[in-house]
UniProtKB/TrEMBL annotation:
<feature type="transmembrane region" description="Helical">
    <location>
        <begin position="284"/>
        <end position="303"/>
    </location>
</feature>
<feature type="transmembrane region" description="Helical">
    <location>
        <begin position="169"/>
        <end position="191"/>
    </location>
</feature>
<feature type="transmembrane region" description="Helical">
    <location>
        <begin position="358"/>
        <end position="378"/>
    </location>
</feature>
<protein>
    <recommendedName>
        <fullName>Major facilitator superfamily (MFS) profile domain-containing protein</fullName>
    </recommendedName>
</protein>
<dbReference type="InterPro" id="IPR036259">
    <property type="entry name" value="MFS_trans_sf"/>
</dbReference>
<feature type="transmembrane region" description="Helical">
    <location>
        <begin position="41"/>
        <end position="58"/>
    </location>
</feature>
<keyword id="KW-0812">Transmembrane</keyword>
<feature type="transmembrane region" description="Helical">
    <location>
        <begin position="522"/>
        <end position="544"/>
    </location>
</feature>
<comment type="similarity">
    <text>Belongs to the major facilitator superfamily.</text>
</comment>
<keyword id="KW-0813">Transport</keyword>
<keyword id="KW-0406">Ion transport</keyword>
<feature type="transmembrane region" description="Helical">
    <location>
        <begin position="315"/>
        <end position="338"/>
    </location>
</feature>
<dbReference type="GO" id="GO:0006811">
    <property type="term" value="P:monoatomic ion transport"/>
</dbReference>
<dbReference type="Pfam" id="PF07690">
    <property type="entry name" value="MFS_1"/>
</dbReference>
<feature type="domain" description="Major facilitator superfamily (MFS) profile">
    <location>
        <begin position="45"/>
        <end position="549"/>
    </location>
</feature>
<feature type="transmembrane region" description="Helical">
    <location>
        <begin position="78"/>
        <end position="98"/>
    </location>
</feature>
<dbReference type="GO" id="GO:0022857">
    <property type="term" value="F:transmembrane transporter activity"/>
</dbReference>
Length: 581
């Protein structure tokens, strides 16, 4: 290995990556499939995964609009928040299970299972005669959708070298550029007919999109198995010996991490409904037990698990650890201000419903568009760190504009809010894409699927913590701010409970201006906390190794062909090698 490569990855190879335990069966199979994949099959596979991304994007942007109608149909609209909490937690904690299952069996088998759960969920929800059946269907949908999204990312990582990884992953985000705008038209037409059709259509659309990819994987595996059946032996052993199968899938570790994060995440959303909030004994008990289970999981997986979800070499991997830290605080930062941002802009800006909707979608659309640009920059320069560090710093500029807007005497102006959103979306794209590539590059292929799922889980936890902090500030301080500025406690309480009541107030009236000042005061605090949290992301991103994105599946296995020296951007990019080794 060349000295230059060693300087880039020395910290990642302190623990040998030569496998002591065998490579999981699913990883062996997909590696063989990748080697046998010709251009025809690869083209169909890419198109299928891309169409699947369209279907999932449309699913996400429309289903959330059907939920209020569905729960109201059963006269249980009050269950909407509980349902949202449950499905959010399930979506987060099921990913390690799906990742491990895909490693133990095969990518095609994992796709098939989550697709079946996805279709069952939509059929049950569409045909549900009771609220209980609807909830069960929603849970299956959450598992299936989360699993398909995860497997799309894993399959792209399996099939693409590092130099193309970011560009292809960014393409999976482009459907949101369209579905964000057309979903409203679709929802309106479906609601006018019957909300059940809104669920039923995805039981057809998504399978049609993803089945070609599944068939290609199974077909190539079948052809390979006709010549060599060695990859089937581990599965036969697993089926014959239940104990061995449970050890291989790390059943105890998965249960520990599933219960741990469920108990940690649930109180972040449920505390507002509990008597006494965070001081409620149930909330405290759930967090404590969740923390103990998380520590137990870490100890078990490092020292006792024969087939750990994340081996010790990954848990002690510097780049992986800092990817998890950056992802956690990035989502915490985002949810700190995003969760109530649409309400904030509805109150402080004089916009029509249409323009307000467009503004609410600005960050999402900007993130998806800039992700494509960032992916191409990664491909051209073969580096990511300079863009990630720069992106986290640029987020501070956007947050600074939002802080300034929150202190404007006559209320925020649209220009500052729009500019801040666009700048932040660029920083988000660079930061998130950077941790994705770094996390996948710093581990061997056999650990990649679990690594992707755990990083996603840490993101969910960070988002829940940020949402909980924002909700605490909002629910504690906004009522008193409204009372102080409005002057009438009864009016203030109504304005707190009904943001639409504020929106209907005449622009320029005393009460409207009073509400604007109250919202500005609260969001000034939220923006300031967010910019402070972003400092952790800036520092954490500096600790990531500056891997060269070449022709390998990852940066820690095999030899890599480094670029020719002397190119101007190599000198600049190498300056951003990890400075804290």
């Amino acid at each position: 290995m060349s000295p230059q490569l060693k300087s880039l990855s020395a910290s990642e190879t302190t623990v040998s990556y030569d496998s002591i335990e065998r490579t999981p069966r699913g990883v062996q199979r997909i590696e063989r499939v990748e080697k046998q994949m010709n251009s025809k099959y690869l083209s169909v596979l890419i198109v299928s995964v891309y169409l699947c991304s369209w279907a999932i994007s449309l699913d996400r942007s429309t289903i959330r609009s059907y939920k209020p109608y569905a729960t109201s149909h059963f006269n249980r609209h009050s269950m909407l928040s509980t349902l949202t909490i449950a499905t959010t937690v399930i979506s987060a904690v099921c990913k390690p299970f799906v990742a491990k299952f895909s490693d133990l069996t095969s990518r095609g088998m994992a796709y098939s299972v989550v697709l079946v759960l996805y279709v069952i969920g939509f059929i049950v929800a569409a045909c549900s005669p009771t609220i209980s059946a609807y909830v069960i269907g929603s849970v299956f949908i959450a598992i299936g959708e989360s699993g398909i999204n995860l497997l799309n990312t894993i399959l792209v990582a399996d099939m693409t070298p590092l130099k193309w990884r970011s560009a292809v992953l960014s393409l999976l985000m482009t459907p949101s550029l369209c579905t964000t705008w057309v979903s409203g038209i679709i929802v309106q037409n479906i609601i006018d007919a019957n909300w059940r059709w809104g669920y039923g259509m995805f039981a057809i659309i998504t399978p049609v999109a993803v089945i070609p990819a599944i068939l290609i994987i199974f077909w190539i595996e079948h052809r390979l198995d006709k010549d060599d059946d060695t990859t089937r032996k581990p599965l036969r052993v697993g089926i014959r010996d239940l104990h061995t199968a449970l050890l291989e899938i790390d059943a105890l570790g998965l249960l520990l991490i599933g219960f741990a994060f469920s108990l940690i995440l649930l109180p972040c959303s449920l505390y507002t409904y509990a008597s006494g909030g965070w001081s409620n004994p149930s909330m405290i008990a759930m967090e404590c037990v969740g923390g103990v289970l998380l520590i137990t999981y870490i100890v078990y997986d490092i020292w006792f698990a024969p087939y750990p979800l994340l081996p010790r070499r990954v848990l002690l991997n510097k780049t992986f650890v800092f990817c998890a830290i950056v992802d956690f605080f990035h989502e915490m930062n985002s949810y700190m201000w995003v969760v109530y941002f649409s309400s904030y802009t509805m109150v402080v800006l004089n916009l029509s419903y249409r323009d307000w909707t467009y503004l609410s979608n600005t960050e999402t659309v900007g993130y998806c568009a800039f992700s494509v640009l960032i992916g191409l920059l990664f491909r051209i320069t073969r580096r990511y760190k300079i863009f990630q560090v720069g992106g986290t710093m640029i987020r501070d500029v956007g947050l600074g504009l939002l802080i300034h807007s929150a202190k404007q005497l006559n209320g925020p102006t649209l220009g500052f809010i729009l500019a801040g959103n666009i700048i932040i979306s660029f920083g988000d794209a660079a930061d998130i894409m950077g941790t994705q590539i770094a996390g996948q590059a710093c581990v061997p292929h056999k650990d990649m699927a679990s690594t992707i799922s755990i990083l996603s889980l840490f993101s969910s936890i960070g988002g829940s913590v940020g949402q909980a902090i924002a909700a605490a500030i909002w629910n504690t301080h906004l009522p008193e701010k409204l009372t102080n500025y409005v002057g009438d406690p009864k009016k203030a309480l109504r304005y707190f409970d009904e943001v639409s009541a504020i929106y209907k107030l005449p622009w320029g009236s005393h009460d409207r201006f009073a509400c604007i000042k109250a919202y500005q005061d609260i969001y000034y605090v939220l923006f300031c906390i967010a910019i402070g949290i972003n400092t952790v992301c800036i520092i954490g991103s500096m600790f990531l190794s500056n891997f060269y994105l070449g022709n390998e599946q990852n940066a820690v296995e095999g030899e890599e062909n480094l670029p020719e020296s002397g190119k101007w951007y190599i000198t600049v990019l190498d300056f951003f090698k990890s400075p804290f080794k």
